[in-house]
Amino acid sequence: MRYSLCVLLIGIILMTGCFSGRHSRGDSVKIQGAGSTFINPLMQKWVHEFGALEPSIRIDYQSIGSGGAIKQIKERTIQYGATDIAMSDSDLASAPGELLHIPVILGAVVLTYNLESVTQTLRFSPETIADIFLGKITRWDDERIKADNPEVALPPVELTVVHRSDGSGTSAVFTNYLSKVSSEWKEKVGEGTSPAFPVGLGGKGNEGVTGQVKQTPNTIGYVELAYAVKNKLPVAEIKNRSGNFVSPNFATVTSAAAESVNTAPEDLRFTITDAEGANAYPISSYVFVLIYKDQPERRLGAALVDFLAWGLNEGQRHAQPLYYAPLPPEMVRRSTAKIAQVNFQGESLLGRSREGN
Amino acid sequence: MLYICAGSVLAITLTMVVAMTQSSWLSIKEFGLGFLVGQVWDPVKGEFGALPFIWGTIASSVLALIIAVPLSVAVAIFLVEQAPRSLARPLGFLVELLAAIPSVVYGLWAIFVLAPLLRIYVQPFLQSLFGWLPLFQGTATGIGLLTGGVVLAIMITPIITAVTRDVLEAVPVTQREASLALGATRWETTKIVLSNASSGIAGAVILGLGRAIGETMAVTMVIGNRPQISASLFDPAYSIASVIANEFTEATGDLYISALTEMGLILFIVTFVVTGLAKLLIMSVANRNLPQN
């Protein structure tokens, strides 16, 4: 009995040895990525589609959150990260190498609400949103909300704010917008993934906020555009810099990005909230991929660059079916140019993954 | 061999405490004891205080015990002493089933069923009766400390019930027979069984308390996640486990992560102190009761 067990064990060890040996002799490259939960559905689609095109490149993406991406890429445990917000100067300075920010896709944050008696789409101007989330507007029939919605009969009821309780890029984008449009918000609360909201209930995740807004009458909260569209939530129109009330959709989000492509800084660490443009939706944002400029391995680096270049070009057509807004063409060009800077010992890796195979 | 096994438990606890203290050292150095009494939690400005979270954790757990202990003990007495066998079996099975439901399911159920139920029926009712008490003032949103406590109570009831039932069943039948033979009524007999099982029941309560303090997902979904200390049960609160679950994945900056780790350490200490106190309290009560019987 014991003898046969030993034989079995040795057999298993030998077999696994054979298989792993075959793997190491094979040509596959394994890339590990992690980060933003927001981009996860699209990233999984990209990984799947790209894997079909290039079976020798195996990519794994874990949606651990933007903060996690920044932590992990600094420790070099992943080859690329994805984040909803650009890294801070101090984070960049403490990284072991030069990190590049590559905008790959667009998202937006929308206001959703639960007001039973109101069937029309509500409109909000930036100051009103700031006052609601600062706790200065406590009733739905407040003059400031009425001013934006003269033809809507607003009920005389108390207003309850719902915000994200978990640290999230969605909160970061939303508070970045509020900090731009309200100096009081900037001073009192500021921007970040876990801001200290002055009022309201905290819901965990988009589903937590949606659940509380749906279940509690007279609430207002913010969620990602993709989530709101998929779940058919009522979504508010927001007044942009040009004074137009704009509803969030692929066209208005992409147009918010289009205006600023040429004025964006060289390192592409920038936000597009409160953007210029008549048709721009004001709470839009990029998702960035983080990647080291100097790659330690030639083949792995080339495969990674290849994947990102594919995502920026062919991959953009997968965006809309999954409710993301594609990049404006000009930004695709700038992002691709950024990827061309990724190198192995001074040699650009763009379009080099097929060589040497 | 057995010594090694027992020692490993101690070793695991010690390494956890050491590791957590190490990684929260930055925050301990920065805030000192002020961390324990600080009431502001603002990651943007780098200000961290734990008091609202400690309050939320203890308040929600105590609320849960107040609801769950009488309920569980009553259910256990019914199952063991009163119910006919044909009813006791399926009921007992149901209780065990409840204990096996994952907490995220309880959380979702709480958002979609319990919270509206409390908002529409229970909270207005409490407000109309006891509205003059600060405990029941404020807007009834269905999300807050009360909902957190109720969902915790529902979660720990099966555990306390199951353990209490086993403890009651362990009391020898001869005791019941002796009591009945002396002319005691069925209810008096149950009281005697209870007092004999009291230390076991105390263990069950502490088990439930332990789970309530550390419970994360279900509470996070309904407690409102607002770091504040409010007298009203209807207002949102926050628990230690929830803030760690909520913020750890997206936390950047050494001090922030360090502060979150220190919260973990505090949760450890709170659990230790609270269960210790509960044990002492129950032991003293049990000791006082025993000689009389």
Q: Could you explain the architecture of this structure?
A:
The complex is a heterodimer of chains A (about 350) and B (about 290). Chain A has about 350 residues and is α/β, with parallel strands linked by helices. Chain A folds into two domains: about 1-105 and about 285-355, Periplasmic binding protein-like II (D-Maltodextrin-Binding Protein, domain 2), CATH 3.40.190.10; about 110-260, Periplasmic binding protein-like II (D-Maltodextrin-Binding Protein, domain 2, 3-Layer(aba) Sandwich). Chain A has helices at about 1-25, 40-55, 65-75, 90-95, 125-135, 145-150, 170-180, 185-190, 205-215, 225-230, 250-260, 300-310, 330-340; strands spanning about 30-35, 55-60, 80-85, 100-115, 125, 160-165, 200-205, 220-225, 235-240, 245, 285-290, 345, 345-350. In chain A, a hairpin with a 2-residue loop joins strand 12 and strand 13. Chain B has about 290 residues and is mainly α. Chain B has a two-stranded antiparallel ribbon with strand order 1-2. In chain B, strand 1 and strand 2 (about 45-50) form a beta hairpin. The longest helix of chain B is centred in the last third of the chain and has 36 residues, at about 255-290. The two termini of chain B are about 40 Å apart. The chains are: A alpha/beta (about 350), B mainly alpha (about 290). The interface between A and B is large, with 37 and 35 residues.
Secondary structure layout plus pairing:
The complex is a heterodimer of chains A (357) and B (293).
Chain A lengths: L1 H24 L3 E7 L4 H14 L3 E6 L3 H9 L5 E4 L5 H5 L5 E16 L8 E2 L1 H9 L8 H6 L11 E5 L4 H13 L1 H6 L12 E3 L1 H11 L3 E6 H6 L6 E3 L5 E2 L3 H9 L25 E9 L5 H15 L16 H11 L3 E2 L2 E2 L9
Parallel strand pairs in A: 1-2, 1-3, 5-9, 6-7, 6-8
Antiparallel strand pairs in A: 3-11, 4-8, 4-11, 9-10, 12-13
Helix pairs in contact in A: 12-13
Chain B lengths: L1 H22 L1 H7 L2 H4 L3 E2 L4 E2 L2 H32 L2 H15 L3 H28 L14 H26 L2 H9 L4 H11 L1 H17 L2 H6 L17 H8 L6 H36 L4
Antiparallel strand pairs in B: 1-2
